[in-house]
Amino acid sequence: xxxxxxxxxxxxxxxxxxxxxxxxxxxxxxxxxxxxxxxxxxxxxxxxxxxxxxxxxxxxxxxxxxxxxxxxxxxxxxxxxxxxxxxxxxxxxxxxxxxxxxxxxxxxxxxxxxxxxxxxxxxxxxxxxxxxxxxxxxxxxxxxxxxxxxxxxxxxxxxxxxxxxxxxxxxxxxxxxxxxxxxxxxxxxxxxxxxxxxxxxxxxxxxxxxxxxxxxxxxxxxxxxxxxxxxxxxxxxxxxxxxxxxxxxxxxxxxxxxxxxxx
Length: 263
Prior knowledge:
With 263 residues, the chain is an all-alpha fold. The chain has helices at 3-18, 23-33, 41-58, 60-70, 75-91, 93-101, 103-109, 113-133, 145-156, 165-175, 180-202, 212-237, 243-262.
């Protein structure tokens, strides 16, 4: 894979990881539709290091504040910050456990185009419907245990391609009563530890002779586009809902089905 191809793949990863349209589906389906070979799950997760950089950059102030408050002298702020650290850690367990237990099965699911098409439509509809019929919701920087656990368990479902990690966690957050922006913000905070862990686990599967230049190009592109996608989504959700994303998911699923029929 050339550096240019890797950068394009990284840009695709950065865009689709944070928009609620499923990065895993795009990373497999788009190259397949273009007649290009699938890069492999390990390479996909390596690109997640780029999106991890995007998350850390976009929410650097939040992480710094949480760390400073957790070690600070103000008792109320210290307890609040430490409580949120604990909730983030516990909420990350379901996805981490699912990833370790179902790692081989996920590799097989990734190649099931009918499953991806179905998940794109089903979870796209859930995202739109929950947001459409729920009240505007609460703007909370530190959601309670119930909300955190709901979003953490939902995150485990993202192991199935087509679900979308950001989409399903935002859906759970909205169902639990958070506003669109608050649900998206906590979704991205929750993504940070699981993305870091997945990157560590999957790096062992990268071939020893993988070219470093293309990999670096992909990671950098994923990081840059990821930051833009995060900021763009937050601005979008400040004034609009998820109808456009649902429509896109249905259209993408239709393309997959059309390609299957053409075989």
